[in-house]
Structure formats: structure tokens, C-alpha cells
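EI: anyone free to look at a 302-residue chain?
SC: sure, send it
EI:
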Amino acid sequence: MAPTIEQVVAAIPEWLGRHVDVAEIPGGLTNRNYRLSVDGVPMFVRIPGQGTELLAVDRANELHNTRAAAEAGVGARVLHHLPEWDVMVLEWLPGRTMSNAAFAEPGMPARIAAALRRLHAGPRFRDDFDMFRLTEFYLRVVDEHAVPIPAGYRDRIPLLPRIEAALAVGPLPTVPCHNDLLAENYLDDGERLWIVDYEYSGNDDPTFELGNTCQELGFDRARTIELCTAYFGRATPALLARMHLQMIMSDMGWTLWAAIQARISTIDYDFWGWAEERWGRAAARLDGPELAGWLREVGSGA
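SC: here you go
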């Protein structure tokens, strides 16, 4: 059973006798989040949602990687950890929570690239991340729990080995990646972008990180090229092809995540609509005329 926020406050000896104000932060898609003020010092508390083992969230990996991201200077420091509940208390990062509209402002791809380079140059994460294997895991969960998924999804699964084989030609070295870069997982303090929520983090191909970012932020072709150039210093056909193929895999995996959430989550959110949106994007790319070119170009050299 997940604890109440009152139980969390009572479980931290350093807070005994101190004045603690609590405010719930709405909008979390998996967990319950709170802003606490302890004698006027703000902190962030994350209480894990139930059933997240079906989403392949490894809390020990998340804790390790959250600490590594803080060491890299791109994430919040862990102030307290309650292992009996997998609760983390993090330093409060001031700044605005980002949105797709905010990321449409000029110069944002360069700022994103700077944050990602900082994360990717930091300490290695504990585990590796592979969206192909995660998609297979989610499909097993779907089958075992009779979870509905969007129509046509299974018909496209035979294309995935072709994408994986293409990406295996001249692979890039893996780096510590976040892998789930919704706009809301970025915070802007006016000087730099911070990255939060490391549930799906792991060492990965950086083009998955870039492709996932472009996909989640709704970047068009020009903005995708801008981000690729800002990160790598160039936007070659091979790098862009890798990013486009990774965009497909991002949507393939998170489609199933959302379908599972639609079945198990107690959060009032349209997870089925989320699944259909991501599946619609993936299907359009899998059925589109550019797929063959991406599969060919990805092996042409970075």
C-alpha cells in the first residue's frame, strides 16, 4: 500500500517538531506529487503509484539514476529516501514547468540540446534502456491482462525487427538517457533547463532521446533538424534517419504504456486517448513513403 503524505512526513526524523506545510501538485500521470515546505524550505515529494511494476518501473534504478542526474547538474538532489515505500524527497527546483507551447519559442532546440549534453556526459546510469525490449515486455503484460490496444497495432509488429536491424548498423555509443521527455519533465529556471522524473531512464542511444523529445514536443521537420544540429553539430541524413526511426519506436512503446495505464491507473486522465494519439503517429510513419529511405539512410554513416 502506498503511504499517505502524513505517513511520509512522520517517517522522517529530521522533520520532527518542525513546521511542515503540504500542497499536492496535480498533473502526475503515474505518481502522487507534493510540494512541502519544512520551516520555509521547499521540497518535492514523490509517492509512487500502484501497479507500476506492470509499467516496468524499477525503483532502485530510478533512485540511482536520479542521483546520477543530480551529479551531472541537470536533476534535483535526493534529500531523503524511504525504501519501505520507494518514496523520494527531492530538492525543490524553482522555475516554470514547460509545455509544448513554451518549447515553440525561438532558440529552444539549442537549450534542450545543452541540457541533454549535460545529462549524457554525466555518470553512467545503473541499467540500460532498450525500447524494443520494453515493447516486448508491454506486449506480454497486454496479453496476460487482456488489455485492449489500438486496432492495427499487431499488424505492424513485423516491421519492428527491420527497424532494429537498421539501427544496429553503425550504432552510436550509449549514454545516460532520460527516455521519456514530455515537455512537463523539463523545468526552466530562466538560465538552464532541468530534467525531472527518471522512472524510465537508462543508458541508451542518444538519438532515441532526441527523437523522443521531438515526438513528444510536436516538432516539425525544421525543428527536428535544428535539435539534431544543436546536439551533434550537424544534421546528416544518417543521424536524422536514426532519429525518425527512434520516433517510431518511442510511439510504439508508449502506446502500450498508455493502454496499460488505461486499464490499471486510478488517475483521472484519458490514457486511452493518449494511446490512440501515439499509435496514430506511429502508424502514419510505418505506412508512410519515407520509411524505406530512413531504413536505408541510417546505415550510410553519421
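EI: The chain has a mean pLDDT of 94.
SC: 👍
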